[in-house]
Amino acid sequence: MTGTDVICGLLVVVGLFGIVVPVLPGTLLVLLGILVWASADGSGAAWAVFAVATACLAVGAVVKYAVPGRRLRAAVPTSTLVVGGVGAVIGFFVIPVVGVLLGFPVGIYLAERARVGAAGAWPSTREALRAMGLSVLIELAAAVVAVGVWVTGVVLT
Predict the structure, then answer these.
(1) What are the residues whose beta carbons fall under 8 Å from the beta carbon of 127, sequence distance 6 or more?
(2) 42 φψ region: left (φ > 0), alpha (ψ -120 to 50), beta (else)
(3) How do residues 14-43 score in pLDDT, each as one tens digit?
């Protein structure tokens, strides 16, 4: 194991933490770590590993929006989702980066509270929180698969 492997491994681990705690661009750091490793190795096998890992991350990026989004649209009206999106943007500027995670459900709750009252606001907010959690789990699963591909590549090359 070379120094480059260690640095790339650190980038990958920080990226995995960045997915769970969205202060850092987790998926991009995982991809960057694997890209640096493939560049340093330079073999065809390393670039194949990079291509497969990139495909895993790309599929995860698409699925993380498609699956929770479909469930959320089925449970929450579009107007409420728009208010949640506005809340996420406001949250981003009030509490940089992490405020998105707070602003979205707060916006959902406030919009639903205005629409159906206090008792009916919580189910929509709960569904929004579930969708956010599912999105993180999908992204994390894709990154873990990509890391597994990379670790296999490191061991075999």
Answers:
(1) 71, 72, 75, 76
(2) left
(3) 999 888 887 778 899 999 999 999 999 888
8-state DSSP, 24: S
CB neighbourhood size of 148 (10 A): 12
Q: Which two tokens stand for residue 61?
A: 């990026």
pTM over 0.70: yes
Measured distance CA(46)–CA(99) in Å, rounded: 38
Residues 6+ apart with CB under 8 A from 59: 142
51 pLDDT above the threshold of 90: yes
> 129: which 2 tokens?
């929180």
